[in-house]
Known about the structure:
This protein is mainly alpha-helical.
Amino acid sequence: MKVSNKEIFYTNGGRVVYGGGGIIPDVTVDRDTYKPIEINMVRQSMFFDYAIKYVSEHPDVKLNFEVTDAMVEDFRIFTEEKEFSYKTKLQLSLEDLEESIADDSQRDFLQPAIDSLSSLIEFEKAKDFDKSRKYIKRAIKREIVSSIASERGVYEEIVLKTDDGVLKAVELLQNPKEYSRLLTEGKKKAEL
């Protein structure tokens, strides 16, 4: 359903709000898209398990600690010891291809190419950890803070300080001209 087809309501200040679809924000912030390595680290409790290990080894850790490169390397070793693994989209496609090979003569002919692709996939997966370093640091911090101070600590120490949506909202509230402009635009739309 298009916005123009929805029921229109007005706030006390005269701004338009549409029924049946939730709130349409005045300002949007790009959402993070998660990579397979990140999704699978969460699914397999790598961050949670590492946080428990870390806090037990560092009982005096404070909420405002910083995740260092040494911690990230320690986490990498931890995931290797836990035999963390995941499959990329390309890897799943290669498995589908292997399953679709009809007979042994086709398999013998295609096996060198399959082996080469498998090696390339493993090489790319080794790079995935470094490509996700920013996410990994944030997730390690989130889980350690959560284990020390529960969800309230996560919101106070991480979400309110680093979330793109929260930071954008604070930026707008600290800029009275931009904030007034957004309110005025909303009101003008209501008058049309």
